[in-house]
Amino acid sequence: MKLAVEKLEAGYQGKTVVKDVSFTVEKGEFISLIGPSGCGKSTLLEVIAGLQPCTQGRIILRGEEISQQPPQQRRLRPA
Fold first, then answer.
1. Is 20 helix (H, G, I), strand (E, B) or coil?
2. What CA–CA distance (Å, rounded) separates 35 from 76?
3. Whole-angstrom distance, CA of residue 25 vs CA of residue 8
4. What is the pLDDT along the chain (79 residues), one digit of tens a residue?
5. Is the dihedral of CA 57, 79, 26, 74 positive or negative?
6. pTM, whole model, 2 decimals?
7. Helix, strand counts (H, E) of the chain
8. Cα angle 30, 34, 40; round to 5
9. DSSP string, 53-78
10. Are 10 and 17 in contact (CB under 8 A)?
């Protein structure tokens, strides 16, 4: 497993915009986030990148939990 998002929750200005999101992406897979404006797509990506904090859940990258790491330590890179 390359990336796992488990029961992730996040938001801003006191409003939860990402709630109970879970998925995995294996090496070599591509995914798309589809939804209406304001549904949390960008927020989810910002949380995975470490630009916004998550309020609950875990992000696991290549077997290492990175949920609380700053962006520069997450070692995210294109496939």
1. strand
2. 24
3. 15
4. 699 999 999 988 889 999 999 999 998 899 999 999 989 999 999 999 999 999 999 999 999 999 999 999 988 776 5
5. negative
6. 0.88
7. 1, 4
8. 110
9. --SEEEEEETTEE-TTS-GGGS----
10. yes
